[in-house]
Design brief:
Length: 448
């Protein structure tokens, strides 16, 4: 079995962006009302085929897409997971519950360009779909509104201010948060000239806004109309009350699963993941693996349980934050292809990056100096978490959760700080008001 190794991640170059929408406008949208006209510079362009920008005719991109006739939910709520690349729309009063794939903000210096809402009152932003809807179709003037039933144009400030219809006549839902001009939920951007409005690349792909498949955006818009919808945005994959991860029905390689039936593609199977307590979707292979549009490419590696067999995994890329987006998966650089070891790729393999608060079975799983695997809080055969001794303070690492020194069985131990239980390893909960070891007056929430 090939030993999996850690590697330093090569992050995206820093991009000087302040918002995905209205960047550079001298008007104050906070003082405007829906329907007021104002010139707006929209989000910096994402991954769009340069050939499309040169087209003389944009065809279907200039047409407002019809809003589907669906029943608006009486009490809609939304939870967005950046790591999980999911938008979870539900209504407690009716039992409606549906999960959609998304594309969130790219990783810049270890953090997504999409802000989380966890520091906000009630830990949410709001989709202001109770506000009057606006159709913004003019290439010369753009309207400011909370609620666009149709938005078309974007100004390419890096290309001489050219106006391009990347929003393709789909809804644009602004989020009422720390900067109301900045972030929203909109269409897929990529291949926006298609009749349906484009195709989604799932993962960390945008400049801050949240992208959705065209049909999914239309459904979310129709279901939320008439309401000020609470929207919680979190980094961690969302988990349900039973501990299972929230995921789309049409799962692909690398997705969390419980049974083979959760992986509904040709040859799909659910491989046990010893680091999360759940499974990961994969499939058997002999040399190559299939790819799916909108996802990182795949690669056939030796089965870690049987070198004579091969299994399909996704490659580590900026799109999945070099595997950090997947719980219990690890960036493995230079993994050899099954039956063709001369060909290698950087892949996402089962394992743990071994930082404080990450799952482990042995001390060898923990990479920090002096680190140990604390199994004292684990139960029912579940893994422990990596820790290290402390007297009052603990080390932090860019791109990882903050840490805190708490009382352990033999003095101080470093633990992962948290805001939600979703941020903690499976089997652990986010416990509030835990005192600092050696300074009991200071208390923080940590995973225990």
């Amino acid at each position: 079995m090939r030993k999996m190794a850690l590697a330093l991640l090569v992050l995206l170059s820093a991009v000087a962006l302040t918002a995905c929408d209205a960047a550079g406008s001298t008007d104050d949208p906070a003082n405007a009302t829906p329907g007021d006209e104002m010139l707006v510079d929209d989000l910096p362009l994402g991954e769009v085929d340069p050939g499309e920008l040169k087209a003389d005719s944009f065809g279907a991109a200039l047409t407002c897409k019809p809003i589907p006739v669906v029943d608006a939910l009486p009490s809609p709520e939304i939870v967005i997971s950046l790591d999980g690349a999911t938008l979870h729309l539900f209504d407690r009063s009716t039992g409606y519950d549906k999960v959609f794939p998304i594309g969130g903000g790219k990783i810049d210096q270890g953090v997504s360009l999409t802000p989380t809402s966890l520091a906000q009152p009630a830990q949410v932003f709001y989709a202001r779909l109770e506000q009057p809807s606006v159709k913004e179709t003019s290439a010369a003037k753009q309207l400011w509104a909370w609620n666009y039933s149709c938005k078309i144009w974007w100004k390419d400030t890096e290309n001489g201010g050219k106006l391009v219809p990347v929003f393709a006549g789909l809804p644009f839902i602004r989020l009422d948060g720390p900067n109301p001009t900045a972030y929203g939920i909109h269409g897929p951007i990529d291949q926006y000239t298609l009749p349906n409005g484009g195709r989604l690349k799932r993962g960390y792909v945008s400049h801050g806004c949240l992208r959705m498949e065209a049909a999914d955006l239309l459904e979310v818009y129709g279901r939320g109309l008439g309401h000020k919808v609470p929207v919680r945005i979190q980094k961690a994959q969302e988990r349900r009350a039973d501990g299972t991860f929230v995921e789309v029905a049409d799962r692909w390689l690398g997705a969390p699963c419980s049974t083979d039936a959760d992986c509904p593609y040709d040859g799909g199977s659910c491989r046990a993941n010893p680091y999360t307590g759940q499974g990961v979707c994969t499939r058997a292979c002999t040399k190559t693996c299939p790819d799916r549009w909108g996802y990182p490419t795949s690669f056939c590696v030796d089965d870690p349980e049987n070198d004579a067999e091969g299994v399909c995994v996704l490659k580590g890329a900026a799109q999945n934050n070099y595997c950090k987006a997947y719980a219990g998966q690890l960036f493995d650089p230079g993994a050899p292809r099954h039956t063709q070891p001369s060909v290698t790729a950087d892949v996402c393999a089962l394992g743990s990056e071994g930082w404080i608060g990450m799952p482990c079975w042995t001390d060898a799983d923990c990479v920090l100096s002096g680190g140990t695997c604390d199994l004292s809080d684990s139960s029912e055969g579940k893994p422990g978490v990596c820790t290290v001794g402390c007297t009052q303070y603990c080390p932090d690492k860019a791109g990882y959760a903050s840490t805190f020194c708490v009382a352990g069985d033999a003095g101080g131990q470093c633990a992962q700080r948290c805001t939600l239980t979703d941020e903690c390893p499976s089997g652990y909960t986010c416990t509030p008001n835990v005192p600092r070891f050696g300074q009991a007056s200071v208390k923080k929430a940590v995973c225990q």
